[in-house]
Amino acid sequence: MEDVLLETYTIVLPVFLGYIVWLLKRQNKKRDANSKEVMLLLRVQLIEYHEGWTARGDVTKHGIENFLEMYNAYHALGGNGMVTHLLEEVEELPIKK
Hints:
Blueprint: H1 2-56, E1 59-60, H2 61-76, H3 82-92, E2 95-96
């Protein structure tokens, strides 16, 4: 009886662990795709804010705070330095009171 249990265990355990590894890899791929999508949406919004504020010539206090939070999230997701240039330009704008 013990031999049957041991044999079953040695067959089932690797299959079960292989399935878990497959599930984790699949979740990582989905998470990576979602992170990329979020990063792209943040970049689009940051560019739109930048264009609007530079055209207007100023930025609001809440606007710059929101921009900074989005900028930090963008970089945490792996965003590049293109948005850093936008941030520098936005920081030079006068804050509308």
